[in-house]
Specification:
The protein is of the alpha/beta class and 307 residues long. The chain has 2 domains: 21-118, Restriction Endonuclease; 128-302, Rossmann fold (3-Layer(aba) Sandwich), CATH 3.40.50.2020. It is 29% helix and 26% strand. It has helices at 21-33, 77-93, 107-113, 121-126, 134-151, 167-174, 225-235, 294-302, and strands at 37-39, 44-49, 52-57, 61-63, 68-72, 99-102, 127-132, 158-162, 182-190, 199-203, 213-221, 241-249, 262-266, 272-273, 289-292. Mean pLDDT is 85; it is low at 1-12.
């Protein structure tokens, strides 16, 4: 059975008593970007005299997914000098431990370096919460690539991406598939009105899929109606096999039953953006999956789209 993580509301964490307002601010930024952290989880002995520890260092934060300790500092030079000394001693005594000393201005630069943002003011105004973090996406895409590699061992699958939301997922997924692959894309839309459920092909395949093992790569599956019709259409082209891999599955919206062979995450019935998914062509380049504020989205819908 394919592993299918379900996103559930996490248990409320115990309140943390921060020593300084800057630490609480930094924790809030980490939470917004979905970066897992621990507050002052470990103390490192630095200097010992006569069998007793005379100097120790307790970094403010540990970023679990990055295996990185963070110490925040202010602009007071005396404190900065002392903290630099402790960080230097820690590096000397514990060379395998990663630790960084950060000023407030360094927060977003650090997160950007590790793929967690920052993003524009427009993006920030519309986002309600980060649903799936960049590190969780990376981990799960790696697992999917390994599963596909095992299942298609000895074959050369054709990866069929459905444009445009699949671009980020497709690019990352193929790099984790340890097999020779062929890549092609389709762009489709569903008909309106009386022909609802039908599919109009805007961009067709360039490859002949007859006799090939085809793996459809989707960004998200909700009602399943368009995908169901697409599957019926592609089977007429006589592929050797036809399977479906989707990053996100929204089963509460399902109308037509469709087979899902590889699933990244099951998500609630909310509007999601990021990692290729958009709202009016915005948010595609966010490195995580996020939900939008309902009131913000309603306001945007009333505004004319830019030409």
């Amino acid at each position: 059975m394919t592993w299918q993580p379900v996103l559930e509301a996490p248990a409320a964490p115990s309140p943390v008593s921060f020593a300084h307002p800057s630490e609480e601010e930094f924790a809030g930024i980490l939470d917004f970007y979905g970066v897992k952290w621990e507050y002052e989880p470990r103390t490192f002995p630095l200097v010992e005299e006569l069998g007793h520890v005379s100097m120790a260092f307790t970094p403010d934060f540990y970023l679990c997914d990055l295996d990185l300790y963070i110490e925040l500092t202010t602009l007071k030079q005396k404190l900065v000098t002392e903290k630099h000394r402790k960080v230097r001693l820690l590096h000397e005594r514990y060379p395998d431990v990663q630790v960084k000393l950060l000023h407030r201005s360094d927060y977003l630069s650090l997160l950007a370096k590790y793929g967690f943002g920052p993003f524009s003011e427009f993006d920030a105004a519309g986002i309600h919460e980060v649903l799936i973090s960049a590190s969780d996406l990376e981990r799960r895409v790696n697992e999917l690539g390994s599963e596909i590699s095992r299942d298609y061992e000895g074959k050369e699958p054709l990866l069929l991406g459905i444009l445009r939301g699949v671009t980020c997922f497709m690019a990352d997924l193929m790099r984790h598939i340890a097999l020779p692959v062929t890549v092609d894309f389709m762009s489709i839309s569903s008909y309106d009105g009386e022909q609802q459920g039908g599919v109009r092909i805007l961009k067709d395949l360039e490859e002949d899929i007859a006799g090939k093992d085809v793996l459809i790569i989707e960004d998200i599956i909700d009602t399943g109606m368009t995908l169901r019709t697409l599957l019926d259409t592609l089977w007429l082209r006589r592929p050797a096999s036809l399977k479906v891999c989707t990053l996100l599955d929204k089963p509460k919206r399902r109308i037509a039953e469709v087979p899902i062979d590889y699933r990244g995450f099951t998500v609630p019935d909310e509007f999601v953006v990021g990692y290729g998914l958009d709202f009016r062509q915005k948010f595609r380049n966010l490195p995580f999956i996020a939900t939008l504020k309902d009131d913000w989205r309603r306001v945007q819908k009333t505004q004319k789209r830019p030409e």
